[in-house]
Amino acid sequence: MDWKDKLSFAYSTNPDFKPEEEDSNEPEIVPPSSQKLIVGIERKNRGGKVVTIVKGFVGPNDELNKLGKTLKTKCGVGGSTKDGEILIQGDHRQKVASILQDLGYKVVISGK
């Protein structure tokens, strides 16, 4: 425990007192082979523009951002990661699905 961490609790006269360890709320890294991702498109609330959405990712936000960046780079388009979903500009369902399968994820393509 760092000295800065000790500043956040009050002094105790109990000789057996030990500060509680905080649990991390970040989910653990789940291997790609045990994840099932859903790739679909959405047009609503986007001014008529189509967005490819990847749902179902389980893991920390850092890993989600890395995966999103990989998909955006390989598709050559923009996008973002938000609320546990990856948004890719345009209809790239087939390309995104094949990239995810190459990375070891189980993929389901939804939509028309």
From TrEMBL:
PROSITE patterns: SUI1. CDD domains: YciH_like. Residues 1-31 are annotated as: Disordered. The keyword Cell division does not apply. One of its GO terms (molecular function) is translation initiation factor activity. Residues 38-104 form the SUI1 domain. Gene3D superfamilies: SUI1-like domain. This is Translation initiation factor.
